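User: Can you predict the 3D structure for this chain?
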Amino acid sequence: MTIDDFVEYGRLQSKMNSYKSKKAKAIEVCCDVLQKHEKPYIALSGGKDSAAMCFIVDEAARMCGKDYRIWTHLSDASFPGTEETCMEIANRLHRAIDLYKCPFSAFEAIKNPQKHAFGKSGVFFDSVREYADDKDLCFVGVRASESKRRNKSAQVHGQVFESKSMGDVTVCHPLLWFTLNDVAAAMYEYDVPIHPIYRKTSIELGKNSQGEEMFIRLSYITSRDLLNKGTALFLKINYPNEFYKLAEVYPDIRRWS
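Assistant: Here is the predicted structure, written as structure tokens:
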């Protein structure tokens, strides 16, 4: 899928009743949890899902007269354009944004052995829990159709649940049952700023384990658990400077590129 395909799918999907129904239900869920909490925030990565989610949460917040903050985690492993995209989204919504800039180098941290590919430990989740210390609600742009692991989690937890690993807060996944095309529709409808990574050359073809068409996913340059799933080659083709910088501290990346 190319960015042109994504935009066209979004234009077409935005007219579908199935999308309109999912969006209405997402807004309803957001309104419900917003009314029950006092200190909500959105975890914005800058990726397509969390970007689209921001505009849906914002519509809900305006409907029920609630405010919220936006939080973004940045490091030297953030893809170019991440900070700018997040700032543009916050400015468009006229909402306050808190940028956490990691004081440690992710390129140094990747040298250390990784115990759990998807564990909720380390610098990122430490910063999540620290930020959530005075918050009680977090909106996260997770979708069930992204992978088997997320689908399984969605079946267990649902859209709203309590999370100790996120800092003893209520977590809400407004887009949990959205497809990729639904996300494209929301971005088209709200004219959401899109991260420059999605204009790069995609190297993944076909469909994922959930039958969803593959498209670029925004993570971190040093996301070691994804390097053997196409990220290494994607980096080498689209971000050669970042690829060779990573290869200096993590030579194994060359195995997958």
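Residues 115-119 have pLDDT under 50 and may be disordered. The first helix runs from residue 3 to 13.
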